[in-house]
């Protein structure tokens, strides 16, 4: 007799993602497929509109770093973040499991539900934010259509891409990547012809705050990396495509965004103007607007896969459609504003989590793939939760972020401990190392 799982497997094309966690992942993505995917994620409208975050803005939103310091900080943060992204990509390729399922081996099946719920919440937020960004950018091109029309159109495209995720990745490689590269080259030529102010005037005191802001953007993809690299043909392709493909394009996009910001004298409300005011600017900027849908696609698909860690037999197509509708409705109703604060909170959670995962997966006693228990009976590992918490505390002590009550709480903790962070301290790097070392210590002491 044919089981429900077998019938579902027959319904799914063999070159597509599995419908449930009961089915094996198709190993069909090569280096160039994945490079195109990560490279396109690196070129985001947020890199233009959010470029000011790498200039370490103060509490009043005024940048404290000069443009050149911001470029260097962004490059350093992006390279470090790219390497972390590459590390997060390898376990998926080795085990064939998505990101949140991998956490069963790290924390235990039941304890993995906590970061899974957190990941679902932040991915729904990112998906909603992306639809808002797409709609606002589309209105910059042509405001003759109501904003809600753009939101619904972006939501529909996102949902279609999410239903056929691997086909969407291959589509990016064949067509979208070429168009994006042409648009980038064109805008670089045009913007470099514009008169620029002095890019070096100012202090480099907030360098690591800027680097952490750029690193946080890369880290925001760490909790979903394995959702795609589990389909990679090799571990080397997974690491290289994620680390290099994403880093190169994010640096290119952020430098372009910072140049645009310099042209408009730091006015973040006009950061798109230098793109739209040049000859054919509207045409090439439209490529960026359409391409932004791969960001919302990645967020929505990974939300569906994350939910499957909680409900393994849920059909991802049903989840994808439901989530597509959800983020569209939220984008119609909400106005997400605190971008820098949002990035800071995401980084503070997932940077130390990656430190624990990397240390335990690559250096721990269960580092062989067959020793990584991803079953629903995986035992709880409270020691790894403690290591994660230690890294999280280190991050908050150094950089508590800008979200009012949260930052005030950690400022009080700093005062109680008589701790004052120095400008050379990177919250991301130090929390990653602290969490990783704590995980190795826990592993040695407990033998687990």
From TrEMBL:
Alphabetized Pfam families for the sequence: Transp_cyt_pur
UniProt protein name: Hydroxymethylpyrimidine transporter CytX
Signal peptide boundaries: none
Keyword Transmembrane appears in the UniProt entry: yes
Compartments where found: Membrane
UniProt xrefs under PANTHER family: CYTOSINE PERMEASE, CYTOSINE TRANSPORTER CODB
Gene3D superfamilies per record: Hydantoin permease (1.10.4160.10)
Family: Belongs to the purine-cytosine permease (2.A.39) family.
Regions that span the bilayer: 37-55, 67-90, 111-135, 147-167, 174-192, 204-226, 238-265, 271-290, 318-336, 342-363, 384-407, 419-442
Key words, A-Z: Membrane, Transmembrane, Transmembrane helix
Membrane topology: Multi-pass membrane protein
């Amino acid at each position: 007799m044919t089981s429900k799982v077998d019938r579902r497997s027959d319904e799914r094309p063999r070159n597509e993602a599995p419908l449930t966690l009961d089915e094996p992942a198709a190993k069909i993505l090569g280096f160039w497929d994945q490079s195109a995917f990560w490279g396109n994620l690196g070129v985001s409208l947020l890199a233009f509109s959010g470029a000011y975050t790498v200039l370490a803005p103060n509490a009043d939103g005024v940048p404290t770093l000069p443009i050149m310091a911001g470029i260097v900080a962004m490059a350093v943060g992006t390279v470090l973040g790219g390497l972390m992204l590459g590390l997060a990509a390898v376990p998926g390729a080795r085990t064939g499991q998505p990101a949140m399922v991998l956490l069963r081996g790290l924390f235990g099946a039941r304890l993995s539900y906590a970061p899974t719920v957190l990941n679902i919440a932040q991915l729904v937020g990112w998906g909603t934010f992306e639809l808002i960004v797409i709609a606002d950018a589309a209105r910059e091109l042509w405001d003759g259509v109501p904003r809600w029309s753009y939101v619904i159109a972006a939501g529909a495209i996102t949902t279609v891409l999410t239903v056929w995720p691997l086909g969407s990745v291959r589509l990016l490689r064949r067509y979208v990547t070429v168009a994006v590269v042409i648009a980038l080259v064109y805008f670089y030529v045009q913007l470099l012809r514009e008169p620029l102010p002095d890019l070096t005037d100012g202090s480099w005191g907030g360098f690591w705050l800027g680097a952490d802001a750029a690193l946080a953007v890369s880290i925001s993809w760490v909790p979903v990396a394995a959702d795609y690299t589990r389909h990679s043909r090799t571990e080397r392709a997974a690491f290289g495509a994620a680390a290099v493909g994403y880093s190169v394009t994010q640096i290119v996009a952020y430098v372009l965004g910072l140049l645009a910001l310099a042209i408009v004298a730091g006015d973040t409300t006009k950061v798109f103007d230098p793109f739209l005011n040049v000859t054919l600017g509207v045409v090439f900027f439209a490529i960026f607007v359409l391409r932004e849908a791969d960001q919302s696609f990645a967020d929505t698909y990974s939300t569906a896969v994350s939910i499957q860690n909680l409900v393994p037999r849920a059909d991802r197509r049903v989840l994808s459609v439901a989530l597509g509708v959800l983020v569209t409705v939220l984008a119609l109703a909400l106005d997400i504003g605190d971008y820098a604060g949002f990035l800071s909170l995401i980084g503070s959670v997932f940077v130390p989590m990656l430190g624990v995962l990397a240390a335990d997966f690559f250096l721990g006693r269960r580092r062989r793939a067959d020793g990584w228990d991803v079953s629903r009976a995986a035992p709880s590992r409270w020691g790894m939760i403690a290591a994660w918490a230690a890294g999280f505390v280190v991050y908050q002590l150094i950089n508590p972020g800008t979200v009012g009550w949260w930052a005030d709480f950690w400022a009080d903790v700093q005062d109680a401990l008589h701790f004052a962070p120095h400008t050379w301290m990177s919250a991301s790097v130090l929390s990653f190392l602290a969490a990783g070392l704590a995980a190795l210590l826990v592993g040695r002491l407990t033998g687990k």
